[in-house]
Amino acid sequence: MTSSLMIDKPDWLSAMRRFALFTLVGHLVWEAAHIPLYTIWVEGTWGEITFAIVHCTGGDVLIAMSSLLLALFVFGTGAWPRERTIPVLLAVIAFGVGYTIFSEWLNIVVREAWAYREIMPVIPIIDAGLTPVLQWVVIPTLAYLGAVKQWPETRRTALA
């Protein structure tokens, strides 16, 4: 009886922890890869560049976890992650992309806190960099799919 309850019980906390870990790693790699598209790459010191990567990654994790929590409030159920996975994923992506477009505008146009280099591809009409927008489609999708996947070790442990 206990083992069948463990199989049916959604493991939302483990899924959220995996999402946070995959998010951290994914955004750290992405930030390091696309920082040459910003002016800090040619104008900043190595210390400033390193700080920017770490700082932005930390912000990315907070945005991702907030997006997941908001998506779960709006579209999730008590059976998540076994149910409603696609609506929650789509909401996570929408919230992340929406915030990114706003943040890029705020920090580039209004605050002038950072700037794109001429090599940054920019999406017409919204004038947001292509790589920051793609970052909020690719990383949350991979992190989410990795987080909600049924790992074979978990099933074997639950059956034992």
UniProtKB/TrEMBL annotation:
The lineage of its organism: Bacteria, Pseudomonadati, Pseudomonadota, Alphaproteobacteria, Rhodobacterales. The keyword Transmembrane helix applies. This is Uncharacterized protein. The chain crosses the membrane at residues 21-41, 61-81, 88-110, 122-147. It comes from the Bacteria. Keywords: Membrane, Transmembrane, Transmembrane helix.
